[in-house]
Amino acid sequence: MSTRIAKKTKFHPLSSWDISNPIYNSISKKTEDLEVLRKISLINNWNVDFAKELAIHYETLVLTDLDQKILWVNNGFEKMTGYPPEFAIGKRPAFLQGPNTSDAVKARIRKKLSNGDRISDIVTNYKKNGKEYECEITIIPLFDADQVITHYLALEREAA
């Protein structure tokens, strides 16, 4: 009878760290978002340091054209709002607003954007299930090589 010796495989706890570590998953998602934005940036000739812009904490990204029609959202959009990306594409972000969304906040945002300035504010939005939430939003105007605004990028997260 022959005896086989099983080769021992050493398992180290850190070898599976990336599977469940929320920090790693967050970095991975930001890297994915950064890659998508860089590709879109090349097409639109934006001169934006997205690595710097995405350094702030966000849950979702929303890219709109000048008419504020949503062109792209990242994977965090559905988790935060309950709406799938396919539903949001082609709509204006206003579909997330409702009765308690402040007209004053909306006016502040419009004014800043019309001046070509970025803005950070908190707006009351509504999830797909109707639940109200405070959305901390930073909207960045995106300029082409001729310094003309062509799009807006919103970095959003649920306010604590």
Describe the model:
This protein has 160 residues and is α+β, with helices and mostly antiparallel strands. It has a domain of 103 residues: Beta-Lactamase (2-Layer Sandwich), CATH 3.30.450. Helix content is 33%, strand content 25%. The protein contains 6 helices and 5 strands. A 5-stranded antiparallel sheet has the order 2-1-5-4-3. It is globular. The N terminus is likely disordered.
Task: Summarize, please.
Helix content is 33%, strand content 25%. It is α+β, with helices and mostly antiparallel strands and 160 residues long. Strands 2-1-5-4-3 form a five-stranded antiparallel beta sheet.
Fold topology:
Elements: H1 17-20, H2 22-44, H3 50-53, E1 60-65, E2 70-73, H4 76-81, H5 85-88, H6 103-114, E3 119-126, E4 132-143, E5 149-158
Antiparallel strand pairs: 1-2, 1-5, 3-4, 4-5
For this entry, give a set of tags:
alpha+beta; Beta-Lactamase; 5 strands; disordered N terminus
